[in-house]
Amino acid sequence: MAIPLPPNSHLQAVLLVTKSRSLGPRLVFHYPPISPSAAALLATKAPAWFGNDTSTGSIDESNDSSSDWDSSTEPDGADEDIEIGSRTSGGRGSGRTGASHRDKEKVRPTAGAWGRQESFEEDDMDGEGDGAGGEIDKDGKHKGGDRDWDTVLGFKVDALEKILCPTKAFNKRRFELGVESVVFVGAPMFVRDDGLWKKRKKRRKQSDEERLHKGDMLANLTLNASQEEESPGDKKKEEKKEIFVLPPGFEAGYGHDIDSEVPSAAASDVGSDVKSDSTTNHNNSPDMTMFNVVFVLNPPALEHQMRVKDMYDNVTKKYAKALKYEQARFEYVWKESKHIIDIKQRAKENGESLTVTWRKIVSISPLARSLATMFDAISADKIAHIHFDASFNTSFQIPQADSTPYLPNAMEPQMPGLWLTTSNVVVDDENDAPMTQHAALLLLQDHEVILKDLQAEKANAAVLSFYIRTIVPTKSLLKISIKHNILAQDMEYIARHLVYWRRARLIAPLHPRDTYIVSPNADMSNLQAAMASYVQRFPTLPSLPKMLSLLSQKPKEYRYLIPTAEHRDAYMDILAWLMRGGWVTQLRTFAWVRVSPGIKAQVAAEMEREERLKKEREDNESATGSLRSDKRSSFLSAGTITGGPRPGTPLRRTRRDNYDGDDMDASTILSPHMTASTSGPGWRGSPARASSDAGSTSSARTTIPYHGPGRPTSPLQLSSPLSHSTTKPLHRPSPLHPKSPSPSPAPPFSPTSPTIQNQPPPSPPPSPQHFTSSLVLNPQKANAVEARWLEAIGKTFQDADIRGHWSTLLKYFDGKHAIEDISPREGFKRKRVGAMMQGVREGGWLVEVRHW
Amino acid sequence: MPTRAIKAIFFTRFHHEKGSRVLHQIPEGSITPCSSLSALRNPLFSFDSATPYLIPTQQFCDRLLTFCVNHYRVIGYPVCIREGRYSRNEFIFNWAVVVEESLADWVAYGEVVRKVGRLLRGLEEQGGFVSGEEDGMGAWDDDSEDKSWRIGSGSKVFALCEMLLEDLNNYAECMIPIDDSNTINLKLFPTRPPPPPIHAHQVPILTISLSALSTPISSDLTLTRILPYIDGINSVAHIAQLADTDLSLTRKAIQHLVFYGCLVLLDIFSFTAVYAPTAEIGGFIVDAAAQEECVRYVRVPRVRWGGGSTTRDPSVSSARDSQSSVSSQASDTSTASSTLSTPSSGAPVLPHSSYTHDISPETLITLYTSLRQGLPLRQWVLDHLDLLGGIDVRRLITFGIIKGFLYRVHKYAIATSTTSSLPPAPPTSLQSAPTSTAPSTHRNVSEASTIRLPAHKNSVSNGLFAHGGGGGRLEEMSRLDSIVSGEEMGGEIGGLGRFLDGMHCFDEICSEVGQGERVVEGRVKGAGEVQVFSR
Hints:
- The structure holds 2 protein chains of 2 kinds.
- Chain A is an alpha+beta fold.
- Chain A contains 36 helices and 18 strands.
- Chain B is built from 22 helices and 14 strands.
């Protein structure tokens, strides 16, 4: 689906299951403590595609809403009623009722939804004998959710922990188990056969830089981990043993020894945990053989694959690997697990409530805390910052789209507030340099907020904060890095980092000369809240509705909205603010070259003339006796039969064939091309280089058959041969040689039959009436005739500047590159681009359209 | 969807002594190794590692259980029957289907598996359908590995697996009689996206000709009544009015049609509305096929004058399908360039231009690209009169909307002052509003008719006047409304207060209050500090 779906992890619970020799499969920890029953999960499957409105129009909606539909009778209030109703009813209509997709309130099913069990169990034929479901039901009602130690997600704990402990065949594989529409996604990690969790490797010293970029840090880690595991050589195995395989009879001191390995702050924390843990048994062989972190999702059917994949790739797998890393370092997972199990056991015996116990566990155990953090953040579609211990913390998220080029129609999933633009769409050009350097970075939070968060991360925030302070949305990264003497790569690195971690967005630098419109995808339901924060921020300036109103007039450059020069900065701030909230988007211009009938006629006439010229020469040549060898002429004759009727062979084919050229006299073939490309106007190079698309080649062949026989195969070779031949006497002989026998291998599918070849070219001179104007869709991949048209157009310009840069401009006339990008990319001044564009426009050569 | 998505079907039984075993598998050797010559060389996945999920604990029985192994997704429905007549009082089996792990819509297969599982359970409970044949076969007597395929030949369950695999893969449905009283009827239903909410101000347009169907599509009375009025011009509210149906029922009926893809939703066409291109416009410009389709759709029928707006070009029927193809074709350069023959080649005008008033693709492109934000359609029409010869403007716009390369710029209003301290609005503007309604309508119709738009006066008036059909009643209503609003002046902004939060577009407001846009806008603007903006 091209249209991105609103971010929604559909995460319902996180489970940690371990399998150990002493305890067998164990569900160590689950979060949230009072998990919804599987039945409740089923019932609350609401695709949030249509945001707020889901409730008002969904089929299930019954009587209460119909009153609203009867228009005038029910004034205000009705909407709110429905919203509340849907929230409590919890049925199909209970979607996400929050404001925008970014900060919505999650309606999470709680244990209160026991009543909905019926739907799940409806066709249990003999409830008594069937056991499972019925018992849960009884337990649930009987004990109440908060005392219910024996069921999780409506399943008995023992059954659940067994089924979530897969065989070793699932080692490092995706574990996906679906029970009805509830999905358990896990990444099981098994201990190695030698009892280690990881081949011993030199512990990586984390430089500050790495810790700073925690996301990448994790990427490194996972990369390393997999490499290490695969690599046969293992170093320092003894050291590993020393640390991880404890000598017998070491029970009491277990924790302390590990602590010595744990640096600083968390050490005491962990140590105390472990001391209290001393009751549990351990022996010297690794007790735990497997752990499996399971994320429980209930995605709607259509989103199943996507949501599960997102969760597994971005969270489950990475988190499991991080845990494994910790486990390898100092038995982190098992130590914590035993501790948690212990606390749970005692609490259960004392008849404590789940919530109280869970609060305790989470406060004591960093592992439990990490799971809780993970759940809270990911289920709210936020970024989870996980602190495993003092020396290792990292972040997890399911990346979200930060922009889309598609405006959803009424029947497609809605994502109001998502930035609407094509500027982030990568045009599939191999020579398209990444836009990053020319883009500006729009921070999605204020500098202060980001810096404060950085401070919390303690790393070398000073450097980073310097970088961040320099960022302004009105200047491209390149300009900023030049101005502040920052390495361009550093700047880009930081930019990518901030973008990945949702702190910023790459935009085209905001400029008063650019045009901005109210985004059709703006989130109107968020308007009231936005107005309030806008007023706080820009109290003395026109209100938000006023600004939106100004921006929804006929599109014009932003500077016309700025009353005086003094207001410029403030108005640019407003623009940045509006951009941040997805209220506005830049209106960008896209263009194609329109070829007029006049040009076509002109080119056709030229080509005909050349053709005649060539024909004559050919005749001359054959009449006077060929200078060529027999081989040459025999090839010629062959060529006239096979290759002859192929009109408009694109340049590339010819050229490549030339280079590949078998036993041909290469220079005679090459020379015209070289003449053309060296002496012709500068743009020639580009179509030549870009015509690397096989598709266009074939289309060229099929599209121009009516140019009839005798058309030149490769116009570039022929272009103005007379003028060039004088300037390049060396290549003089070249135009003498016939071009029709293109030296390419005979095309198997020539459009016209070879016999036509011998007929004379159509005699009447082409006139503009015979042509209609058309567009050149992709100048970079223009076929031969198109290339000539473009060339001819290029010659019509009076302005030397346009003529000189016509080829550069052409690159942007493919409907995919915005005209606004010319200036930053090519390093031209805006004014100059504007003037050039004006010139081209005045000639009527462009079809232009403006969108985002 | 005959996709042959099912890779294997197999039947697993749990034996109290011998453990779990695959009794039947299609194709042979797909689950457990099999010595038959025709069997697959390698099983699709390791049966042993899958056993816990095929024969789970009772907790997980009698519900759909899927798991992924070796890039396959196994969809099973383990059944556990507890009854005294079985050894150890329970009988456990699982009828499961194997599909590719990446299969997007596996849920459809899940429903089939669930149904078969329940059916087998029923059959077993009724007459020992499954256990009975085991006794006869002596399935568990022999421990040899290839027992499974040999017993297959005469087994009903085996035959069932075989038929289901073939039928579902080839026809996506099947009907298999089991015995006198039982028949299996299965069909793979593709999962459809949830239908969007339907608003009263939206305009439905059919993508397939429902009236051409011989049998009525539904026994839903509302649906039958509203169908004749769905013409791409009437809004939902208007349709409900014309068909004399309840609005909420109408909305639901239309929602059903949307769900099944018979209908797309547009907005109220109006010459005061603003339309602008979306990013998809590039796809249209490079797609010659779409342009031709557009030409066919927008050309004013010259011969069939009486046909009016209800005759529909066949191209509309494919509108929905091809909508998605617009973007895909644009991205697929080879497709695009191969279809580009005509425009890019600079051909002399082709013979099929024998139509008078031939609309060239270029005209369409010029017209579409000249639409922009802030430019009402009326103005745009006047600006491009010379190009619009033979073109139905409504269809031109509608085509763009359906294909997604145009969007309607909706107008919103938001009250910036708190309603309690409302400044006195000039009463004249409000009073004059209703009286100006009728004349303004007429004026615009005449204005439109100068643009020579045959057969679409209806749409014009409709645009200005959301409830054009209910003329008399409407005027009454608006008059009433103005009286009410006049009385409530200063309190409620003429009853529009609830719409002035920036979340209700003018179409919606007009539709709700039953007044034309101009009237509504006048009322809104006269109602105090209100900002009107569009997006």
